[in-house]
Design a protein that fits this description.
The longest helix has 23 residues, at 288-310. A 9-stranded mixed sheet has the order 2-1-3-4-9-8-7-5-6, with helices on both faces. A 5-stranded parallel sheet has the order 12-11-10-13-14, with helices on both faces. The chain is built from 13 helices and 18 strands. With 506 residues, the protein is α/β, with parallel strands linked by helices. It has helices at 15-24, 80-87, 176-187, 195-210, 223-236, 254-261, 275-282, 288-310, 322-328, 362-371, 376-379, 399-418, 471-484; strands spanning 4-9, 29-33, 44-49, 75-78, 92-109, 124-135, 140-146, 153-156, 161-164, 214-219, 240-246, 269-273, 313-317, 352-354, 427-441, 444-457, 465-466, 488-493. The radius of gyration is 25 Å and the shape is globular. Helix content is 30%, strand content 25%.
């Protein structure tokens, strides 16, 4: 069992970023809700309390039970996590004169404290809080201050517990990685969690879990399901059958391309043409959540049918990754949007799920794929949603709308590759709007469809910025789509970032 750090999620937007930073330091971590600490779990080396959007005085604030954590494990509280420990131990947390947000500098540092080893006075940190700790009870000791925040960091004497009112996980905290690395040293972590070690442990766990059971895998052609397939194949070989479903909402010619791509992997892949089934069940449906549910259930129906043909199938493999899980159900229980492979499953599914990448971020999945020796174009492929073009048609779905979107999307993606831009973009998408507008082609008036081009930069899909594509490139794409795709006379570019917008429109 690998050692691990537990991150208690108290609702911060940067909780997942804490996890990424810890993993970048070659240490495995798990993010769990504030009230679900895995007591008794093996390998726990330390605990981090995240920030939160709440004040410690809010009636609906998240409150972690720390009696069996503090004194048992090294603890690091970040922002709200630090304020929560101070407040519940007799200290004072009060509203700041003005919201402390942005860059600050540590004017005082206790260099003898192991958490701050290697830091120098003047180092930049990033503040983001409306409250501030104004006094600390015994045996709390201040170990760092800024010009306006006396208790920027503290240590509780007699136990390995620290708190910082800034965010070491964000890039703007210059020595944030050093602070987190120091905490891992305090925890006694070996820092040996690498792609190779993940593969070794994952294969062992899969063998132990599945033994001689047979699995069918929901193969999409994307990096997540591809890496899942290779990982499962390494563990169970011939007991894995991959099912690739054409639901009629794939990119242009994608069904044939994907089947060809997998030939080199030695996988047992069955292609299923289910376009008619999905078009029938989606006819007239416009609500995006309903679309996702129908498509998710449709996939499972197909898998169940194929499993019955294959006999003795007990497991369904899926390429679920961590952002899917986080986005499908937040800590408050509020669904942002259902992902077909976590939120769209029917209550009574005949197959058990195995999701070996469930706790990995996208960039980690790509590193695993590289370590597994997969072809670069499979690993670098842009994310593509399981519901496919079904959630990029912002209205009811028809074969004609699919044709229009497939052709526009194919031109867009092809030109991104041709111009050498594809690998600079995290994800690119074309969206068909339920809006028609007047245009002129030749000497004739047209009244046709509008498509939206979307391109974002990101590292893990939890946050994303719109990609600043060259104007001459956008002009070229627009002209190509309008001139070559029958039914489109207007192209627009989406300049929304995440948050507040999501990457996909539905």
């Amino acid at each position: 069992m690998h050692e691990k750090i537990i991150i208690l999620d108290l609702g911060s937007q940067t909780t997942q970023l804490i996890g990424r930073r810890i993993r970048e330091l070659n240490t495995y971590c798990e993010i769990v809700p504030f009230n679900r600490f895995p007591h008794g779990a093996a390998g726990i080396k330390g605990v981090i309390l995240s920030g939160s959007p709440y004040s410690v005085y809010d009636t609906n604030a998240f409150r972690a039970e720390l009696a069996d954590i503090r004194g048992h494990y090294p603890v690091l509280g970040i922002c709200y996590g630090a304020q929560f420990m101070a407040h519940t131990s007799g200290g004072k947390v009060e509203p700041a004169n003005s919201r402390e947000y942005g860059r600050a500098h540590l004017s005082y540092i206790n260099n003898d404290d192991p958490l701050l080893k290697g830091l120098s006075a003047g180092t930049q940190v990033w503040m983001s809080h409306g409250d501030s700790i104004t006094s600390l009870a015994q045996p709390f000791r201040i170990i760092a201050s800024t010009g306006s925040v006396k208790a920027a960091a503290y240590r509780i004497e007699g136990e390995q517990t620290w708190g910082v009112q800034f965010h070491p996980e964000v890039y703007h905290t210059t020595d944030g990685t050093q602070i987190l690395n120091n905490f891992l040293d305090i925890c006694g972590c070996c820092k040996d969690w690498t792609p190779a070690s993940f593969i070794e442990s994952a294969v062992a766990e899969i063998k132990e879990q599945l033994k001689d059971d047979k699995v069918i895998l929901a193969l999409s052609g994307g990096v997540d399901s591809s890496v899942t397939a290779v990982l499962l194949n390494r563990a169970i070989g011939k007991n894995l059958t991959c099912i690739f479903v054409d639901h009629g909402l794939l990119r242009k010619n994608e069904f044939e391309h994907v089947l060809r791509d997998y030939e080199h992997l030695g996988l047992n892949v069955i292609g299923v043409d289910a376009r008619g089934k999905f078009y029938r069940e989606l006819a007239g449906v416009t609500d995006p959540e309903q679309k996702r549910k129908i498509i998710g259930k449709g996939f499972i129906d197909v898998f169940d049918e194929e499993a019955r043909k294959l006999k003795e199938i007990k497991w369904l493999g899926q390429g679920t990754i961590y952002p899917d899980v986080i986005e499908s159900l937040s800590i408050t229980g509020t669904v942002i949007k259902s992902h077909h492979n976590v939120g769209g499953l029917p209550d009574k599914m005949q197959l058990k799920l195995i999701e070996p990448l469930r706790l990995l971020f996208k960039d980690e999945v790509r590193r695993i794929g590289t370590e597994l020796g997969m072809m670069p174009h499979l690993i670098k492929r842009h994310p593509f949603p399981g519901p496919g073009l079904g959630i990029r048609i912002i209205s009811d779905i028809t074969p004609e709308k699919v044709r229009i979107l497939q052709e526009a999307d194919d031109l867009y993606i092809s030109l991104l590759r041709e111009w050498g831009i594809y690998d600079e973009v995290w994800q690119a998408a074309t969206i068909l709007l339920p809006i028609r507008s007047v245009g002129v082609m030749g000497d004739e008036r047209t009244y046709e469809n509008t498509v939206v081009l979307r391109a974002v930069t990101s590292t893990d899909a939890m946050t994303a910025d719109w990609a600043q594509l060259p104007y001459d490139f956008l002009a070229k794409v627009s002209n190509e789509i309008i001139n070559k795709v029958k039914g489109v006379n207007r192209v627009v570019y989406d300049i929304s970032s995440k948050p507040p917008a999501t990457i996909e429109w539905e």
